[in-house]
Amino acid sequence: MTPWLLTLVKIGLLPILLWQGRQVRRNALRLPEAEGPREGVAGSGKVCLRILIVGDSSAAGVGAKNQTQALAGRLSEALSQRLGGSVVWQLIARSGDTTRVSLTAVRKMHLYPADVMVTALGLNDVVAQVSPKVWLSRLDKLDRAASRRAGVKHIVHSGIPPIHSFPLLPNPLRWVLGTDAQRYNRELSVWVKRWPERWWLPLPFENDQPADSSVLMAEDGFHPGPAVYALWAEQLAGMIANDIVPRLPETTPTRRRQPRL
Q1: Comparing C-alpha atoms, which of 98, 96, 123, 254 is closest to residue 178?
Q2: How much is the pTM?
Q3: Angle subtended at Cα 114 by Cα 99 and Cα 42, rounded to the nearest 5 degrees
Q4: Taking the CB of residue 30, how many other CB atoms lie within 10 A of it?
Q5: Where are the domains of the chain?
Q6: Is CATH 2.60.120.920 the right assignment for the domain spanning 3-256?
Q7: What is the side-by-side strand order in the sheet with 86-93?
Q8: What burial class does residue 13 get, using C-beta atoms within 10 Å of its C-beta: 0-12 exposed, 13-18 middle, 19+ buried?
Q9: Whether the predicted pLDDT of 222 surpasses 60
Q10: Residues 108-163: tens digit of each pLDDT
Q11: How far is the C-alpha of 62 from the C-alpha of 67, rounded, in Å?
């Protein structure tokens, strides 16, 4: 469906979409962010990589009990095992954050030096009906701010999760937001190709959602469960260890040790 036709459909469905949105916000189960520190070191031995994770509720670990079960803990541990050393990580994430809010946080908060940044952003921009063009412009500013303030060399942007299969959302709201999310992902996948240091990773099951995927979700029907965080982290770790680490400058901690795959 073309963007202009989707806009016309949204206008026609606006009363229903607004009502469904209010009902979802009123009745949805509100899960807390994962407990635990927002920075740490995974593994042992010499530091082989430094990771900055920026995002919304999924990056903050909503749907997991603690950060060890969430994205930050899973990713840092998986990278430590692959690279054969310790991984320093920092998490900047909060439920409800849009890319604009995360950009402000990266500009203002204290950042540790990082070789790679991973983002989990866009879902709240979809909900807020931010245009893909504006969203990508804010992602660009975020990337540049992280590079300038933390020394980030490479960035992996996680795709928008498969909203079209979220159990919590009723139709037509699910269909509209899911269609928007798929458009975001298409434009993101093209946009990152402009820069050799930027990458895109589709989230698990985005293109081929299994029929029983709801069992992988958190109990609120909207956020990932621990199993999805584990799979997401493994996919990220594989990309970073195999594709990004060999491209890092000789001066980074990573280049002092060969990856152990």
Answers
A1: 123
A2: 0.88
A3: 105
A4: 9
A5: 3-256
A6: no
A7: 39-42, 86-93, 47-55, 116-120, 154-158, 198-201
A8: middle
A9: yes
A10: 999 999 999 999 999 999 999 999 999 999 999 999 999 999 999 999 999 998 88
A11: 9
